Amino acid sequence: MKRVAASGLAAATLLVAVSAVASLPTLAPKPPPALALDLPAPPAPVRPRRVASLNLCTDELALLLAAPGQLVSISRLGAEPRETPVATRARGLARNRGRVTDIVALQPDLVLTSAGDASAATAARRLGFAVVNVVQPRSLAEVSANIRQVARALDRAAAGEALIARMLADLGPRPSAPVPALIIGGGGQTIAADGLSAQWLRHAGLQQQRVTRGQVDLERLLSDPPQVLVISRYYPGQMSANQNWLAHPAIAALPAAVQRIETDGRVWTCGGPLVAAEVARLRALVRR
Going residue by residue through the chain (288 aa), what tens digit of pLDDT does each one get? Predict the structure, then answer.
């Protein structure tokens, strides 16, 4: 009897002890102390030192953005003053014909190509060269995007932002009341009313008229003259069938009310940042 009572008392004591433990608050384990790791900083971007460009439009961007001594080759068009206003910056650089085979011996560490020539980009990559393929811009926003793309590839981001800032300063706000205009080149060639060149012109206060098939005929010009006629001069002094068209007596016979303004045709070829300063010049000349 005493043995049973003792057993019961022991069991009760154990139960009380377990209950007391269960009622104690649960303490969350402390996290281990953080380790102060001295990790190395991420590597800085490697600036290419031997850059080759295979296209006039990438030539212009490279010549505007590259650091001194960073370029080793540009296309022959980029070194031709009759093709681009920045050709003087190309002195001393090797010229190529837009072909990858022309630059292999130079062993460039970066090749700039145009998206319009996919074969050049493909060939350069197969030969193991790093390639930046630049699209033909269709809007002013894409012009800025191309500048940033090339500037980053050259490790010249600050130069890219500075170029964009100058471009936007030259552009200024779009005038609210544009003047009807036509821009014509040799043979009566003109631009689309909603294309990139027309967007540039709009910042000069000029609204490009719509023309079918991208060419103005003299009869249309005489019967429906614009308020402003912008004549694009390209290869001045060189006479050809297209250039002779601009000297036709019909153009001289346009009404005196038609304002004639000449523009540097070289800057319109690529539609890049070089157009901005020309737009500012045109805006100052337009009669309102």
Answer: 444 344 443 444 433 333 443 443 444 455 555 444 444 544 445 889 999 999 999 999 999 999 999 999 999 999 999 999 999 999 999 999 999 999 999 999 999 999 888 899 999 999 999 999 999 999 999 999 999 999 999 999 999 999 999 999 999 999 999 999 999 998 899 999 999 999 999 999 999 999 988 899 899 899 999 999 999 988 765 556 577 888 889 898 999 999 999 999 999 999 999 999 999 999 999 987
In sequence order, what DSSP letters do the residues of 174-241 get, joined into one string?
A: PPSSPEEEEEE-GGGB---TTSHHHHHHHHTTEEEPP-GGGB--HHHHHHS--SEEEEEE-STT---H
In the chain, domain spans = 51-170, 173-285
Triad 247, 260, 82: Cα angle to 5°: 60
By CB atoms closer than 10 A (0-12, 13-18, 19+), residue 201 is: buried
Contact residues for 43 (Cβ-Cβ < 8 A; gap 6+): none
For domain 51-170, give its CATH number from 3.30.70.260, 3.90.420.10, 3.40.50.1980, 3.60.20.10.
3.40.50.1980
- Note the helical H segments in the chain: 2-22, 56-65, 118-126, 140-153, 157-171, 196-203, 218-223, 241-245, 249-252, 275-285
Its pTM stands at 0.82
Helix (H) or strand (E) holding 72: strand 71-75
- DSSP lists the bridge partners of residue 71 as 51
Superfamily designation of domain 173-285: Nitrogenase molybdenum iron protein domain (3.40.50.1980)
